[in-house]
From TrEMBL:
Gene3D superfamilies: PAS domain (3.30.450.20). This is Cache domain-containing protein. Pfam families: MCP-like_PDC_1 (PF22673). It comes from Streptomyces eurythermus.
Length: 253
């Protein structure tokens, strides 16, 4: 069964308003990601202009901006640039990733990416990397237990970084789920019918609906296609309203 579209027949004014407010709540995180994307793109273009491949030490130039954004944006727990495999001349994979601890100190993520020793050496299959690479658009991944960085239930928002028309990696930021829920659950609970938020793969990002818990999957509709059209729709008795400018869908029973 496909998704039926049509704004007038689908979304009520309160639902459209909540979808817009959810978009606004997450837009601040995407602004952080966009700044990292811009700096990463500019850096890689400068290196390309030198007619050489980038190396891992080149990415150290991103650190002042990453540190400043982590110090400024309380909702963001980690941020950085993740290189596409083969981008760097001196390393098969690389995360220029920094995170803010409970004490407010910004520290690097020290990760073993040796494929002979580490289960995390291939990050290309994870949604936060694969969705921007495959769609060329923003993505929201999770929630999931972030064993890689914080061991907390988290969301990762990301955007593709492209240089000279080629995918070079992703700019991304982590948000603790508890912080995201604090911002959006009051909005969802204000609607007269049960509601939850899903990403492009139908993963529930936050929920005020006991039938759809955070982290579970909402099956049936092609949420990625719906986000591509940015038009509300219906599917099997559910109303589906894309959130403003961010890749989440408000699902109302």
């Amino acid at each position: 069964m496909g998704v039926r579209s049509g704004l007038a027949a689908v979304a009520t004014e309160p639902e459209r308003r909540v979808a817009a407010q959810v978009g606004g709540a997450l837009e601040a995180v995407f602004e952080t990601v966009a700044a990292t994307r811009a700096e990463s793109t500019a850096l890689l273009r400068r290196v390309a202009a030198e007619r050489r491949r980038p190396v891992s030490r080149d990415l150290a130039a991103l650190r002042p901006g990453l540190h400043a954004r982590l110090a400024r944006d309380a909702i963001v727990s980690g941020a950085g640039f993740v290189a596409a495999p083969g981008l760097l001349a001196d390393a098969p994979a690389w995360l220029e990733w920094w995170q803010s601890g409970a004490d407010g100190v910004v520290r690097p993520l020290l990760l073993d990416l040796d494929p002979g020793r580490s289960a995390y050496s291939d990050y290309t299959h994870w949604d936060w990397f694969a969705l921007p690479r495959d769609t060329g658009r923003r993505a929201v991944a999770g929630p999931y237990v972030d064993y890689l960085c914080s061991a907390e239930y988290s969301l990762t928002v990301s955007e593709p970084v492209c240089v000279q028309g080629r995918f070079a990696g992703v700019a991304a930021a982590d948000v603790y789920l508890r912080h995201f829920e604090a911002a959006v659950l009051p909005l969802l609970r204000g609607l007269p019918r049960p509601a939850h938020l899903v990403n492009a793969h139908g993963r529930v990002a936050a929920s005020a609906d006991a039938a759809h818990l955070a982290g579970s999957l909402t099956r049936g509709p092609d949420f990625g296609e719906l986000l591509g059209t940015a038009r509300p729709g219906t599917h099997g008795g559910l109303r589906l309203i894309p959130c403003r400018r961010v890749p989440l869908v408000l699902v109302v029973a």
